[in-house]
């Protein structure tokens, strides 16, 4: 522990900063995410040479070029698979996946759900700008139904994915949601994601200034964000609103938005957020909450304990090595049903 503390004091944000130009569009929310990640890494206590960033294809996936760590800019949709191999091969590494809504939820959907259900100890940052940015404005799996894009001139006719719902359905143990316009929120959540044992998934509502500008404005706009977002913290009441006087309570097994001070409502009537109860369907309800009836849930929505894939796999390998009667390839080839032909 003392060694980790010394490392965290020695490493600073500057150590993770590259000399080259960051080639994202001016105003892209990815700049804020990059800055937040570089602020978080020194606090994890992990040596710089033990940090690996893996990405697929897309605007988000240029991330490994812009941070001074080891990294892989891999194939479209395959970042989760490659990151799984990296972590299983060397469990001591801190592995981060940076991906987009098109990269991970379309061509990479299969790898995405399986890394979640396996609970491999990696951190996934999902940039959700609800559009394909790098390939110039086609609709993605999270584009709102009815949206007019280059590939849907008459409006999309597909139901959009909710990344949080996918995480719950895949038995994910950690799901959080943040906005790119709130660096403090991002840093707080990224730290919790890094500390989580298992797959942590953070959905980042990110603005694409070119092809989907202000797509999240109903949530992130300065005039509405306090009333349209609720920042959840484990063990604390569900309070939100510009005046801090709104909350969510459970009545007749249904969520209800209430105002503290009206009709005898007090803070004691509000729900207490429990991110750690994996058997509670409240997490599923929270990821589905949305306008106009409810605020959008932000922060760590789920953070439950479960077995970690690579730890169990290495235990099985060790057990096999210690107990197997077969210790060489030659013995393996000569084991089982062996036939000897005599001329």
Please give a structural write-up.
With 343 residues, this protein is an alpha/beta fold. It folds into two domains: 2-215, Rossmann fold (3-Layer(aba) Sandwich), CATH 3.40.50.970; 222-303, no CATH class. The chain has twelve helices and eleven strands. It has an eight-stranded mixed β-sheet with strand order 2-1-3-4-6-5-11-7, with helices on both faces. A hairpin with a 2-residue loop joins strand 9 (246-251) and strand 10 (254-259). Helix 2 crosses helix 7 (183-195) and helix 4 crosses helix 5 (109-118).
User: What order do the strands of the largest sheet run in, or round the barrel if closed?
Assistant: 2-1-3-4-6-5-11-7
Q: What would you say the CATH architecture of the largest domain is?
A: 3-Layer(aba) Sandwich
CATH homologous superfamily of the largest domain - what is it? Thiamin diphosphate (ThDP)-binding fold, Pyr/PP domains
**Secondary-structure element string:** HHEEHEHHEHEHEHHEEEEHEHH
Instruction: Please name the CATH topology of the largest domain.
Output: Rossmann fold
Query: Total helix count?
Result: 12
- Give the structural class: alpha/beta
Spatial shape: globular
pLDDT averaged residue by residue? 94
Instruction: List low-confidence stretches.
Output: 1-8
**CATH top level assignment of the largest domain:** Alpha Beta
Secondary structure: number of strands: 11
Helical proportion? 25-40%
Précis, in short:
The protein is built from 12 helices and 11 strands. The protein is of the alpha/beta class and 343 residues long.
């Amino acid at each position: 522990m003392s060694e980790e503390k010394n490392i965290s004091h020695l490493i600073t944000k500057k150590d993770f900063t590259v000399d080259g130009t960051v080639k994202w569009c001016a105003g892209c929310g990815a700049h804020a995410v990059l800055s937040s990640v570089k602020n978080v890494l020194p606090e994890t206590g992990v040596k710089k040479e033990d940090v690996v960033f893996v990405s697929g294809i897309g605007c988000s996936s240029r991330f490994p070029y812009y941070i001074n760590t080891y990294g892989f800019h891999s194939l479209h949709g395959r970042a989760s698979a490659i990151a799984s191999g990296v972590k299983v091969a060397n469990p001591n590494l801190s592995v981060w996946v940076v991906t987009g809504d098109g990269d991970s939820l379309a061509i990479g959907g299969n790898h995405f759900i399986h890394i979640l259900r396996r609970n491999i100890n990696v951190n996934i940052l999902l940039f959700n700008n609800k559009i394909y940015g790098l390939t110039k404005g086609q609709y993605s799996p999270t584009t709102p139904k009815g949206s007019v894009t280059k590939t849907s001139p008459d409006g999309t006719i597909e139901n959009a994915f909710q990344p949080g719902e996918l995480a719950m359905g895949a038995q994910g143990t950690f799901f959080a949601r943040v906005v790119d316009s709130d660096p403090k929120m991002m840093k707080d959540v990224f730290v919790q994601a890094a500390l989580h044992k298992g797959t942590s998934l953070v959905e980042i509502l990110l603005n694409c200034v070119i092809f989907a500008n202000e797509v999240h404005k109903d949530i992130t706009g300065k005039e509405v964000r306090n009333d349209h977002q609720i920042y959840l913290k484990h063990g604390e009441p569900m309070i939100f609103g510009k005046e801090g006087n709104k909350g969510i309570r459970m009545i007749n097994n249904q969520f209800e938005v209430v105002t503290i001070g009206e009709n005898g409502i007090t803070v004691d009537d509000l729900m207490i957020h429990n991110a750690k109860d994996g058997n509670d369907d409240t997490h599923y309800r929270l990821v589905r909450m949305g306008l106009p009836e409810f605020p959008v849930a932000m922060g760590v929505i789920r953070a439950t304990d479960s077995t970690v894939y690579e730890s169990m796999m290495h235990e099985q390998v060790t057990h096999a090595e210690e107990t197997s009667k077969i210790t060489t390839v030659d013995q393996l080839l000569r084991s089982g049903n062996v036939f000897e032909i005599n001329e």
